[in-house]
Amino acid sequence: MGRWMRRAVAAAAMTIAGAALAAGEMPRAVVESFSQGLIGVMKEAKALGFEGRSRRMAALVDETYDLPFMTRLAVGASWATMTQEQRDRLVAAFRRFTVATYASRFEGYSGERIVVAPDTTANRNGVVVETRLIQDDGDPVTLNYQLHETDARGRVVDVFLTGTISELATRRAEFAAVVRQRGLEGLIALLDERAVAMAAGR
């Protein structure tokens, strides 16, 4: 295959991928895969223990979330003043915190299932995929995922609890205050402290 042909094929693939993202096909597939993985972790939660759940969730989070982007938005203007080494350390701490949060929240299974809505909603930030966590012993919980386009597939950059409460906005308000009061090292320490506390069941 000649060089021009390879370029034409690559361009066509990118066009198709972009159209699929715009139509919500790939974002929905990303959320569906994450949801199935999450239910799988819940079903094996007791046998896995916190460490096992953390390992499984780490793989799911890495595959699904754009953590560097989320970290940058969460810390706000302070990101611009950080070195790359500082940014890398902060992203790593945010990853540990995110994984620990999932591992601690989803520690058992009682017949839950996650239903992903067939349609997606486009907005200026990308695409929203709506899901509902169905529980046998309680009301359904709405979890909506905001995805943006990256590597032609889409990655999660925010989760809206009950469909309206932005988890990223909540983090940003808290993280910005911590950076102002305690600096970057203080924020990293806080994230690690919380991850350790969740691992200990506190």
The arrangement of helices and strands along the chain is HHHHHEEEEEH
State the name of the first-level CATH class. Alpha Beta
Main sheet attributes: strand count, strand direction, barrel closure = 5 strands, antiparallel
What level of helicity do the residues show?
A: 55-70%
Going by CATH, the architecture would be Roll
User: Which structural class is indicated by helix and strand composition?
Assistant: alpha+beta
What is the terminal separation in angstroms? 59 Å
Regions with pLDDT < 50 over 5+ consecutive residues? 1-23
Name the assembly state.
single chain
Question: What portion of the residues fall into strands of 2 or more residues?
Answer: 15-25%
Q: Give the overall form.
A: globular
Number of strands: 5
Relevant CATH superfamily: Tgt2/MlaC
Strand order of the largest sheet: 1-2-3-4-5
Total domain modules: 1
